[in-house]
Amino acid sequence: ASSDPAQDCIFCKIISGELPCYKVFSDENCTAFLDLFPATSGHTLLVPRSHHEVLETMPPEEVSAVFARVPLLGKAIKAAVGAPSYNLLVNNGREAGQVVPHVHIHIIPRKPGDGLIR
Ligand code: 5GP
Ligand code: ZN
Q1: Which of 43, 51, 104, 106 is catalytic?
Q2: Is 43 considered catalytic here?
Q3: Which residues contact 12 (CB under 8 A, 6 or more apart)?
């Protein structure tokens, strides 16, 4: 336990290589890896490299840089798992269902009969 929240953050540890992940994309601003408990096949988390708990504390330019990767990454994920569509999801804050306090965008591939309600 440290006073620096990033020190104990599992996504910071994944980004630094201290914890393993199945990486699908990486650039100077962000990295993307498969969700450990996928909602559907190919469920990916797009994660800014710098530690921010919620979007409000992130510089807007960084928010833009991360979201700007969605179309190309989404296209690659769709091709990889043969899904025609995907959902984007950000649980922004504990009351919104955020469990890992490091900003991340869920990219959830969708296809007919995938079992998700909507
Ligand atoms: P949240 O509810 O915070 O938006 O979602 C956190 C997500 O991170 C969950 O979908 C969960 O399955 C995923 N997750 C939690 N711990 C790990 C981990 O150690 N590795 C990976 N790859 N995903 C994780
Ligand atoms: Zn972090």
Answers
A1: 104
A2: no
A3: 6, 51, 102
CA distance 47 to 54: 12
pTM: 0.96
Q: What is the pLDDT of residue 2?
A: 57
What are the pocket residues of ligand 1 if the criterion is a CB atom closer than 6 Å to any ligand atom? 10, 21, 33-37, 45, 91, 97-100
Which tens digits make up the pLDDT trace of 17-55? Answer: 999 999 999 999 999 999 999 999 999 999 999 999 999
- 19: which residues sit within 8 A by CB, 6+ positions away? 10, 13
pLDDT, tens only, 82-98: 999 999 999 999 999 99
Nearest to 38 by CA among 105, 98, 107, 94: 107
User: Residue 34 Cα, ligand 2 centroid: separation in angstroms?
Assistant: 16
Distance CA 30, CA 107 (A): 14
Nearest ligand to the C-alpha atom of residue 105: 1
Q: Domains, the chain, ranges and CATH?
A: 5-110 (3.30.428.10)
